[in-house]
Structure formats: structure tokens, C-alpha cells
Amino acid sequence: MYRIDNQSRQAVYEQIVHQMEQYILTGVLKSGDKMPSVRNLSIELNVNPNTVQRAYTELERNDVIVTAPGRGAFVSEGGQALLQERRGKMLLSSLKTVVSGLRQTGIEKDEIKALVDTAYEEGQHD
User: What is the per-residue pLDDT across 38-92, written as a single tens digit (0 to 9) for each?
Assistant: First the structure.
């Protein structure tokens, strides 16, 4: 389920965080679902357990997972909504930057709107 790209410039713990966030966002992992143990995931990925622990610490710090001593880590209640909100804000910020760049290159407002409409419609089919 999880994969590490050893050729990636992204740190291994960040790859784990990103994949877990994607699984939560897409509903593969749901609120209350138990996460793999640090030990088991480190064996599965062939990485140091400290690397997996670092990813879990980051996810917990961001309120995406919660840990229960002796029971393990679980997807937090509202973790998906929290990720959706954060991702939405980040993407809107990126969109503003892109729109600003398009304006600076002389593309007209109506054309930008049409591009956004097309992208939105195409996204409905994904």
C-alpha cells in the first residue's frame, strides 16, 4: 500500500506523510481507522523505525492522527475535513499566483475564467 521512491529528492518521512494524507483525503483511510504500527510499517518499507515515527509525529502534530498509548495510532476524528481545508487553502493560494501570472502575460479576464471553467468541468470526471 505504501511505497518509497529512493530516487526522490523528498525525504522518506515526507513521502510517508504525503501518502497517508492522500489515503485519508481519498477515503482509503477513514476516521478511527488504525494505522500500521511503526515497527510493521518500517519493515514493510525497509526503512528505519525512527523515520516512520517521525512521519507519525508530524501527522499527529497536524491533528491528522492520534496515538493511544498501548493501542497504536488512529486517523483522527475530523482528520479528513482538516486535510481538505488545508489543501483547499493551499490550492487557492496557488491559483491566485497562477491567475496573477496569467494577467501579467496579458491574458484577458474572460479567457482566464473560461480556462478555470474548463478545468473545473474536466475535474468533475476524475
Answer: 999 999 999 999 999 999 999 999 999 999 999 999 999 999 999 999 999 999 9
Distances in Å between the Cα of 115 and the Cα atoms of 89, 100, 126 are: 20, 14, 17
CB 60 within 8 A of CB 66: yes
C-alpha cell at 113: 475564467
Q: Say how far apart CA 31 and CA 24 lie, in whole Å.
A: 8
Could you give the count of Cα atoms lying within 13 Å of 125 in the half-sphere of its Cβ?
4
pLDDT band at 123 (very low <50, low <70, confident <90, very high): confident
50-to-43, 44, 119 alpha-carbon distances in Å: 12, 14, 41
